[in-house]
Amino acid sequence: MARPLPVARIVAPRSVAVVGASDDVGKFGGRVIHYLQKHGFPGRLLPINPNRATIRGLPAYPRVSAVPEPPDVAILAVPAATLEAQIADCAAAGVGACIIITGKLAEAGPEGAALQDRVLAIARRAGMRLVGPNCLGIFNPVGRAMLSSSLALEEENYAPGSIGLVSQSGALMGTLLSFGRHHGARFSCCVSVGNQADLGLEDFLEHLVADEATRAIGLYIEGLREPARFRASLHAARAAGKPVFIVKAGRSEAGAQAARSHTASLAGAFPAFEAICRDAGAVVMEDPQAMVLACDAAVRLPRWPAPGLGLAPIASSGGSTVTFADMMPGVGLRIARMAPETRAVLGRWMPDSHVALPVDTGSFHEGTSGDGLAECIRAFMADPDVGAVVVPMTTQPDMAGRTALFPPLAREGGKPLLYLMTAGAVGDASRAVMRAADFPFYDRMADALAVARALDAAAAGRVAGDAPLRPAGTGPASALPSGVLTEGEAKRLLAAYGLPVTREAAAATADQAVAAARTIGFPVVLKGVSRAVVHKSDLGLVRLNLRDEDALRTAFADIIAALDHAAPGAAEGCVVQEMARGEAELFLGATHDPQFGPMVIVGAGGILVEFLQDVRMAPAPVSAATARALIEGLRVAPLLHGLRGRPPADIDAAAAALERLSWLAADLGPRLVELDVNPLILRAAGQGAIAVDARATLKKEETP
Questions:
Q1: How many angstroms separate the CA atoms of 73 and 130, rounded?
Q2: pTM for the complete prediction?
């Protein structure tokens, strides 16, 4: 058996056979050979058609096995009924790889899936690789190998570039190629992987990471076959300095609302996917077109200096700049804070009362001028709090002439300049100026905002986080039961990893509860215990701040009655706990994702955790610095730093608890179904944190 053809040779073959070739460009095979010729394929083209002697001026062959030498790649655009025989012929001929455009296989039902399995088996016996089936092939502008039937190839002159793209949707890939070309984006290699019977997204991602021509990578993903390999490739891309921008289809989880715990509700497939991408420095986006624009900006614009910097909008339209500024907070961006030196420059061109961001150059003393605009942009480029300058241009005299100012200013200043042409077709001359200058432009404010947000996130992902180091006194816990743990059992598990938990004692009777409270010290908390109950407070099974014995006895009777009603036959009495107070509450969670392994979650705590959806997730274990960064990334983080005279909360203690919880998750591995700590009460800075409630579900430990 010959050694399998490497991916680099598949995307840049020296010879290509087109099975189903035709002179009719209305047919798949006709378009494939037409596009290969149109875009200047430099290798040998081999049309395969038993009914023709020549096709498009080339000698035709009745079958692939009749070709004098085995082609590197065969492209098959044939009916599904003939596919198996054609694949067998390719295998017999020694073809290196087949690109199968043919659809109606595994995606069409059991019969199609069986056919796909047979085709794959034939290929594997011969050492022949497959791309697809149900794909639209490969676009390689660098090697002029347009191995596809996509109508996007009707466009002229796909110049080689530096954007690599892998898509699990063929039609979307063609659309993105055409969309990118409109904006001046240029691609190195684009691959539609289809059903991924053999080669898949992970294979081509590895190729793009290693490919010298590729400088930024875009991925449209519907599902992963090899999550660990995918994750490793993202880390390799970061090490290679190649930003990766991703759109993931299927973000929602219909079953999440029925989850039995906060962790299960919040840790769906998409949040876990997003967490491992963020951990590897990749940026997850919502819009595939914005993803292409972000890739293009990463390639053609100066690099975003550092994460968290502000934007400086400037234009001759107050309406456009203010509207843009109003939209920024919704995507997590902010207006820059001008340095005194920047203010001084602006003050030379406009009244002091108008020196502010966003800048309306219509307020210049003598109206908008090219010199004033250029000097202000240079000042912004030098301002340490400015990450990028944004120019949202509206209709005005000499738009094209004014547009020509911006590319040199951006290159001189060394920071991104996002040029936004909002004027529709009347702005085409300005767009032409940008294309001629090899500079990106945007037609919509939403696109420019998405690109700015993506570049800022990519800047944050450029540097790998600290390697996690196991803290002293972290487990492992022994003799853990399987199934749903009681709060006490879950807290013992937490304590084994050094997480601080409340003092407590079990009580089967009111007298035992009183005795426990005397030992712990009033005021106390009383909780009902049952493995059948998830959220105790929802059922009236939690009583806080019980200050004396009478209040405790009354609460005990009420809770026992509520337990008998909520979980008949499953009640396990009550537990008495110390009454903990603090400055803030967080939620901590841990789980084992079936694709990505152990994960930890932190979010706003208390009864509103699922309602607020203010959470961050990361693969476990995490370092102390990463744990703190996750907490600081929450929307409630400003509250933790103190508000309206309240002291700041002990974020360091919360980060330490999250770090320790991450090692618990890593050690338990697949045994851990879910674990909630809610709330973790944060005392004032320097005074620690304490877990006041916990719940966990464990699988039975597998015996070797």
A1: 9
A2: 0.91
